[in-house]
Write a structure and sequence with these properties.
Largest sheet: 8 strands, antiparallel
Strand content: 35-45%
Strand order of the largest sheet: 3-2-1-8-7-6-5-4
Helix content: 10-25%
Number of strands: 8
Number of domains: 1
CATH class: Mainly Beta
Structural class: alpha+beta
Oligomer: single chain
Number of helices: 1
Distance between the termini: 50 Å
């Protein structure tokens, strides 16, 4: 009887895991398996600022940073687990890596030499784009 119960438990667990894998709607890079940031929204945090940002599919970064004086030249790119974005024509550059599907963290540097740590948490997956 214990063998039957254990077998049933294994089958039910396997089915549950398969269902979870099949219903995961996070767009993934086929080659690397990491989530794609294109058309996703994130909440950015560092020791000085918190604001929302969106990685648009054309490589443009849209943010609600209160000090972004030239929002039309903010860009981003992704290479597997690495995400890079740039403010004010690369006055500030950011490099981060995924920590799970919904968190990116890393370091940033400005042209003045200031360096800081940052983290971004996904706030809206935007599956339909």
């Amino acid at each position: 009887m214990k063998t039957l119960n254990r077998g049933l438990l294994i089958i039910l667990t396997s089915l549950s895991l398969m269902q979870t894998a099949c219903t995961n709607k996070d767009p993934l890079d086929i080659e690397t398996g990491f989530p794609l940031v294109s058309n996703t929204q994130w909440h950015y945090m560092d020791t000085d600022w918190e604001y929302d940002m969106e990685f648009l599919s054309n490589g443009t970064l849209r943010t609600k940073h209160p000090n972004d004086k030239t929002p039309n030249n903010d860009t981003w790119k992704q290479n597997g687990e690495k995400v890079y974005f740039y403010f004010n024509d690369k006055y500030s550059t950011y490099e981060g890596s995924f920590s799970g599907n919904n968190i990116i963290s890393g370091t940033a540097e400005s042209k003045t030499g200031a360096i800081w740590n940052w983290k971004a948490v996904r706030v809206q997956p935007n599956y339909n784009k």
